[in-house]
Amino acid sequence: MPDFYKLARKILFRLDPETAHHLTLSGMNVTRRLGLLPHLTGLGPAPNPVGSGIEVMGLRFPNRVGLAAGLDKAGTAVDAFGALGFGHVEVGTVTPRPQPGNPKPRLFRLVEHEAVINRMGFNNPGVDRLLENLGRSRRRFRGVLGINIGKNFDTPNERALEDYVACFRAVYGAADYIAANLSSPNTKGLRDLQNVETCRELVATLQRERRDLALSHDGRQAPILIKIAPDLEADQIRDLAAVFSETKIDGVIATNTTIDRAAVAGHRFAPEAGGLSGTPVRRRATEVIRVLREALDPAIPIIGVGGISSADDAREKLDAGAALVQIYTGLIYRGPALVRKLAAMK
Q1: First-to-last CA distance in the chain?
Q2: DSSP-derived 3-state class of residue 5
């Protein structure tokens, strides 16, 4: 089977990154509906490859690899990503109300570094439309669905909790797990919520909401996760770990994109504002996982994200203490073959 993605990438990389992104999602959905997507990627007819399977947070994951939030913000391509072999797909970040995000251009490829800088700004259709989309796009996916929630850009931080609660209530019936994004650098002031007091209040509030919602969802307790930044100092990570352990949160996603540019200094896009993802963030993300794992209650799992472009990169995250991994930028540069390699990991 020829690697169709190598040809597709040459074409896509000639386009503006955001145009290429939307074209890719549309193309995946069309070829999936025609039954061609698994064959074009060499996967065969199964919706996703059979992995060894692993239980995390009380959920059964077909394999250890998932799609990180941000690629399918609107929840339009869940089945298509399942056809690539992902064991879990995390859609969003979604906000209560639709919002366009930051002005364009807002997405930049740093090809020499296998990296991306984005300042998208939670562009999404709003939680109601996301749920409508999921009703159409999640019909054959056999894996785990996560929904990543955030606040609208114009909601002041002192009222941010209201946005998280609104999204949490709305998506509860559709999500296998729910992740609260406090760590994107692209919504002004959002990372200020990554403090001990706010995290404690947010987790406790969502847990109370879950107890109420479970009464109308056959007692189902959807896991709650927090996604943190790679730019936290070690002491900050330990302080947050103490809160997560105290509140018995269900999981932590480490990490989001970085604002640090040391690894790409001198590149023409390095001065662009936004979050850097891909190979340059690999080591820092792994170090955050390692510090977090040492300080965190051993019963609380970590999902490792950041700079995974090979099975060795993923194994590095697992060895540092992650139970699962997610990819985004690695998929852009390496294609579906990377998903297959990671899905085969024990």
Answers
A1: 25
A2: helix
Q: Which residues contact 223 (CB under 8 A, 6 or more apart)?
A: 57, 58, 59, 176, 177, 178, 250, 251
Tell me which residue of 265, 340, 299 sits closest to 115, measured CA to CA.
265
Residue 128 parent element (H or E): helix 127-137
In which region does residue 44 sit, left (phi positive, over 0), alpha (psi from -120 to 50) or beta (all else)?
A: left
What is the C-alpha to C-alpha distance for residues 25 and 21, in angstroms, rounded to an integer?
6
Encode pLDDT of 37-55 as tens digits.
766 665 555 545 556 789 9
- Specify the amino acid at residue 232: L
Fill in the amino acid letter for 238. R
Contact 250, 300 (CB under 8 A): yes
Backbone angles phi, psi at 85, to 5 degrees: 115, 5
Task: Give the whole-number percent of the chain exceeding pLDDT 90.
Answer: 84
Q: What is the spatial distance between Cα 39 and Cα 67, in angstroms, rounded to a whole number?
A: 20
Where is 180: in which H helix or E strand? strand 177-181
Residue 184 tokens, joined: 């994107």
73, 47, 77, 72: which is closest to 62 by C-alpha? 47
- For the entire predicted model, the pTM comes to 0.95
Catalytic residues: 184
Q: Looking at domain 51-343, which CATH architecture does it have?
A: Alpha-Beta Barrel (3.20)
CA distances from 267 to 49, 113, 330 (A): 38, 9, 19
Over pLDDT 70: what percentage of the chain?
95
Q: Before 93, cis peptide (omega within 30)?
A: yes
Residue 47, pLDDT score: 47
Break the chain into its structural domains and give their ranges. 51-343
Name, in order, each residue with C-beta under 8 angstroms of 204's C-beta and a sequence gap of 6 or more.
247
